[in-house]
Amino acid sequence: MVSERPRLQGRHRVAAFLYAGMAVVSLVLGAIYLFRDSFMPYHAAALGKDWGELGPATQTLLKALMEVAAAGWLALGALVLLLVAFPIRRGERWARLAAPAALLLFYVPTLLATLSVLHETPGSPPWRFNVVACLCAVVGLVLDAPWRSATKTARENA
Q1: Does residue 29 form part of some domain?
Q2: What is the mean pLDDT of residues 61-67?
Q3: Around Cβ 77, how many Cβ atoms within 10 Å?
Q4: pTM for the whole thing?
């Protein structure tokens, strides 16, 4: 007996691949920020101080903020991977809207924060990745086009 599992086709598959790729990158970034013992090099440049020059209270605060950022990346990555693996794979419209929405809800404010650090401090944060993440979400959304009717999409894939 052949399994009748739904399979994503064409543009929907590319969109799911973009979402899954951004989810994996988010999980990696979350793990990096969660398991670091000190802040990132661009944080040191932004503050004009190395980690060891900071007082214990400041170190604790900055480490806690990094852990909160890590939690955001980890939650986003897990959510988007689950959306791609189950409801998006089944073609559920709500999930095809939710994945890019979740990515944009996280990465647009993150982009704005990194641009603020870039323009207001000597630090050089990795803002370009946030632009790529936002573009992947928008390109995936446009390619997937979940607002289109299911009948029209079925005709195009036939």
Answers
A1: yes
A2: 98
A3: 23
A4: 0.89
